[in-house]
Amino acid sequence: MLPDPAPIRELSGLAPDVLSDELLTASEPVVLRGLAASWPMVGKARLSQQEAGAYLRRFYRGEKVLAFLGAPEMAGRYFYNEDLSGFNYAAIKAPLDKVLEELEDHKDDAHPPSVYVGSTMIDHYLPGFRAENDLDLGGRTPLVSIWIGNRSRIAAHYDVPDNIAVVAAGRRRFTLFPPEQVANLYIGPLDFTPAGQAISLVDFAKPDLERFPRFARAMRSALTAELGPGDAIFIPSMWWHHIEALEPFNALVNYWWRQSPPHMDSPASALMLALLTVRELPPAQRRAWQELFRHYVFDSDGLEAAHIPPAARRMLAPLDEDSARALRFQLLNRLNR
């Protein structure tokens, strides 16, 4: 029998315009109970699905959104097909008001078709929404998206940015794992994924421990919380998170931002390049490169080039927009030889 996850630490009584740098740079997750309780969207959602849908339609200007549709048999689990050669849902462009209508039509079905609109930029598709429903992240410029659908199960994955997710309608259950549990979550392909991020292949509703025995170890480190309308959760960068939407109608607003300068590329690029250049070296050479990475990257204290005259440090100097552009150009030339 798998152990039950521990509860995520909770804070309450915070206001959406009073979020501290200490919270927004934390390395552990935290639930923020009632953070967005004053949002008009949350108030409408507490009244009914129809009221929440009508409120969203106020801001919609007609541009089609990306929607994912699946048969009732998938039970909201957006995933691969049997042999991982494709996916178990179809992706289409559709008007948001038609998606909301579809959700309303099936709200009482015991086994409805799965309907999901993911990561839709609010400022583009719902202009004006944030004037009434927003968080103040202290001068940060986050990417703000909305996620709408009926019951769903989103496989465990990580995001590079830090994240605050606000439940604006419905209920969601979050199950989180620290980054070091990657080996115990049985991650699928890195370069062919349902939504851009690699995902765990374990079905959390019925884990196959014969195929995925180390998942039991992961569950010993798992944290969980169930959130209702107005609740929020801070998920630090690189924490694995599995998300279940539990009602016939659910809406979530999330804020992504990075604690790094804009000129920095995603570290996922370095991982892909390491797979290309390092993974298949002989073990002794891999250990040598591991030491170089440790020295110049993972244990960097800014002093590894102190013995080089400042004007001659080049890529070993702190990067700025110009030097990052020059380094990127050098890398592209190497890759295109």
What does this structure look like?
It is a single chain. The protein is α+β, with helices and mostly antiparallel strands and 337 residues long. The protein has two domains: 252 residues, Cupin (Jelly Rolls); 69 residues, no CATH class. 26% of the residues lie in helices and 24% in strands. The protein has ten helices and 15 strands. It has a nine-stranded mixed beta sheet. Strands 1-12-11-14-9-5 form a six-stranded mixed beta sheet. Strand 2, helix 1 and strand 3 form a beta-alpha-beta unit. Helix 2 packs antiparallel against helix 3 and helix 3 runs antiparallel to helix 4. The model has no long low-confidence stretch (mean pLDDT 96).
Chart the SSEs and their pairings:
Blueprint (H helix, E strand, L loop, with lengths): L5 E2 L2 E3 L8 H4 L5 E4 L6 H8 L1 H11 L4 E7 L6 E2 L11 E6 H10 L8 E8 H4 L3 H4 L10 E7 L2 E6 L4 E8 L2 E6 L37 H6 L2 E5 L4 E4 L4 E6 L4 E8 L9 H11 L5 H16 L22 H15 L2
Parallel strand pairs: 1-12, 2-3, 5-9
Antiparallel strand pairs: 3-13, 4-6, 4-7, 7-8, 8-15, 9-14, 10-13, 10-15, 11-12, 11-14
Comma- or semicolon-separated keywords:
globular; single chain; Jelly Rolls; 10 helices; 15 strands; 337 residues; six-stranded mixed β-sheet; 2 domains
Largest sheet: 9 strands, mixed
Helix/sheet category: alpha+beta
User: How many structural domains?
Assistant: 2
Overall mean pLDDT stands at 96
Strand content: 15-25%
The best one-word shape is globular
CATH class of the largest domain: Mainly Beta
Helix content: 25-40%
H/I helix tally: 10
Q: Could you name the CATH homologous superfamily of the largest domain?
A: Cupin
Task: Record the strand order, biggest sheet.
Answer: 2-3-13-10-15-8-7-4-6
The string of secondary-structure elements, in order, is EEHEHHEEEHEHHEEEEHEEEEHHH
Low-confidence stretches: none
Q: Rounded to an integer, what's the Rg over CA atoms?
A: 22 Å
Shape-level CATH architecture of the largest domain = Sandwich
